[in-house]
């Protein structure tokens, strides 16, 4: 019999992870299965125990459990501790170990979009300072960049994230309006906020008047595939990328961690795009 993997979250009904992983298992000839489990916050502790009893070999963790699961695991890796969230759990020596593939997944997808092996020379702006921003900023800084700037509506949250990352890179926290006026100084601008998602499809996280041509604009949103912000960026000569690449790569890194086999990223991407219609 194949091994069991899964996803815990609340809700999980709309997640594309089961289709993406099960398609890879099938195509690669594995008899393994990936199952979504809807667990309310009250059920989380018992749920993690149930995963052990069911001999689940690894699972993804999504909203609202990414932070709350940390004390329930046997170990949490350093990068996930710095991000302050776990999105992937794997089994090693009978223990459940928490890791985070969101930030590294984002980093890998960004490198492939810009066709380079490092961000060392780039001037990077992250918009937002919530959970998604933490994963992106921590992993980018750990990869070895010279500097990273974080812009957020609530400047105190940007300052806090900036201080977490400052052990790896020179970091700075600025307001959204300062980010708008200094936009031409950045090579890569990343939107980690939900601005641009339904029901605010016409809203954009940052005005692009001062953006230079050739800037990479990256939006973590993948539904819609092209946000108003990316549309405007494209019209102004930006290189744009949506959140599909990160979603695929965070899943691919989890798949590799669980199985020691590299999945077919292009096929995973096609599966996700088909699901998104
Ligand atoms: P996630 O886990 O998806 O990152 P989050 O932790 O709730 O979600 O963070 C949401 C981020 O989007 C925050 O940076 C938030 O800014 P604040 O820290 O000021 O709240 C930002 N955000 C959400 N709605 C926004 C809006 N209408 N204008 C500006 N920033 C917004």
What integer is the average pLDDT? 97
Shape: globular
The small molecules bound here are: 2'-monophosphoadenosine-5'-diphosphate
Order of strands, main sheet, comes to 2-1-3-5-6-4
Using the coordinates shown, work out and report the CATH topology of the largest domain.
Answer: Rossmann fold
Low-pLDDT segments: none
How can the largest sheet be summarized?
Answer: 6 strands, mixed
Residues in helix, %? 25-40%
Query: Which strand-content bin applies to the residues?
Result: 15-25%
Give the full name of the CATH homologous superfamily of the largest domain.
Answer: NAD(P)-binding Rossmann-like Domain
Count of discrete alpha- or pi-helical segments spanning 4 or more residues: 10
Any idea what the radius of gyration is? 19 Å
| Main CATH class of the largest domain | Alpha Beta
CATH architecture tag of the largest domain: 3-Layer(aba) Sandwich
Number of domains: 2
Order of helices and strands: EHEHEEHEEHEHEHEHEEHEHH
Alpha carbon gap, first and last residue: 33 Å
What structural class is derived from the secondary structure elements? alpha/beta
Task: Count all strands and give the number.
Answer: 12
